[in-house]
Amino acid sequence: MTAAAEPFSYLQRVSFSDIDALKHMNNVEFLRFYENARIAYFRQIVPDYEPVHGGRIGVIFAECQIAYRSPAHFEEEVRTTILPSDLKRSSVRLGFEMRCEADGRLLAEGHGVIVGYDYASGRAAPFADDVREHLGATVIG
C-alpha cells in the first residue's frame, strides 16, 4: 500500500446487542467498532500481526478520543475508515471516521494512539523496522 492508495476501511453491521435503551448504538460499541477496524488494518498491512496470541509484533492501545456526531441504528452498516498519521519511533496515531454506508452521514470521528510494546519486559518498545515501513506506507499527510 502506498501513500496514494485509498485509506483502509472496514464495514460492520449494527447488531441488536449493540443497541441501548434509546434504540441506537450504545456509545461503548463505537470503540469496539474502531478496535475491530484497527485490528483489521494492522492485519492487512502487517500480514504476520497476531492480536490474540502475541508474537513478534506487540502493540497496546494507549489513548482514544471519540466525538459522537449522529446515532447509528439497528442493522445499519457502519464503515470505519482508518487515517494513520504521526508515525513515531514507537507510536502511531490512527485517526478514524465512522459513516453510515447507506447515506454517508458521519456517525463518529476521533483517534487512537497505538504504541509498540514488549510484553516480555512490560514496557513500550520501538516498532520493528518492517512494521514501521508498513505503517509509514499508509500514513496520510
Describe the structure.
The model has no long low-confidence stretch (mean pLDDT 91). This protein has one domain: Thiol Ester Dehydrase, Chain A. Strands 1, 2, 3, 4, 5 and 6 form a six-stranded antiparallel β-sheet that branches. The protein has helices at 27-45, 129-136; strands spanning 8-13, 59-68, 77-85, 91-100, 106-118, 123-124. It starts with 7 loop residues before the first strand and ends in a 5-residue tail after the last helix. By secondary structure, it is α+β, with helices and mostly antiparallel strands. The longest helix is centred in the N-terminal third of the chain and has 19 residues, at 27-45.
Order of helices and strands: EHEEEEEH
Could you tell me the CATH topology label: Thiol Ester Dehydrase, Chain A
> How many β-strand runs?
6
Outline type: elongated
Q: What structural class is derived from the secondary structure elements?
A: alpha+beta
Stretches where pLDDT is under 50 for at least 5 consecutive residues are none
Total tally of structural domains: 1
Please identify the top-level CATH class.
Alpha Beta
User: What's the architecture, going by CATH?
Assistant: Roll
Estimated share of beta-strand residues: 35-45%
Amino-to-carboxy terminus distance: 15 Å
Question: Roughly what percent helix?
Answer: 10-25%
Tally of individual helices: 2
Question: If you average the pLDDT, what whole number results?
Answer: 91
Q: What's the main sheet like?
A: 6 strands, antiparallel
Instruction: Give me the CATH superfamily.
Output: Hotdog Thioesterase
